[in-house]
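Lab notebook, bench 4. The sequencing result for the construct came back, and we need a structural model before the next group meeting so we can plan mutations. Quick request posted to the team channel:

Model the 3D structure of this chain.
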Amino acid sequence: MEENRRKRGSVTIFAIIVNVAGRRFLITNDDGWDAPGLAVLKSLAAELGDVYILAPRDPHSYASHRVTEDSALLLAETAPREFTLSGTPADCVRVALTAVFEDIDWVLAGINRGGNLGSDLFTSGTVAAAREAAFLGKPAIAISQYVKRGRPLDWNRSRDLARPVIAQLLAQGCSAKDYWNVNLPHTENGNAAATILCDPDNQPLDVRFHRDGAELRFAGSYQARPRTPGRDIDQCFQGAITVSRLRL
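Done. Here's the predicted structure in token form:
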């Protein structure tokens, strides 16, 4: 393995070159089995090893780490080594690793449509899937694509951004009970993006509600959320790929 590190302020930019072929990847998400981000992640994992999919039958954004223990879960095979489940992202990882697939090496969750930065870590189903993998002793990466409001998203660009950072993290590995959270910036015109290792932000979302009598609707702006210089929100909003090591 060849590793190159250099410092920029309080964060680290890193590059790792390694051959990681031949591994077995479990792919899941929280946007549902037919989401374009899942298809992108499947294609990337197929370049690196064998792919096994168990994804939610329905979208479960903001599901956090909810699991199902008081009702039956319905498993359906859609293709060889590909299944849907009537459960949450955390359910999918539990079922895949303990009841469906054997000898999975890594769990990859995503690519989520929308960022999972800072306080999002506590509500994200994508991150919960990676966290459940860590609980069960498997290294995992959650990958999300930040989307600027009102601007089109090019999933081919997401694939190009995600490919090297996934290879880097597979090469670096993951300590027991740790897992990785990756956010891709919404870049335009093929602009380059640095990969930066940084801490998640601990600032709250822009929490506001529009009230109409007894009805309240969330009115906060994702883009207007507070951010701490050098942490993941600030770096991703400025156009960097952010990587955060998370720990149980």
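DSSP finds five helices and 13 strands in the chain.
Will bring this to the meeting.
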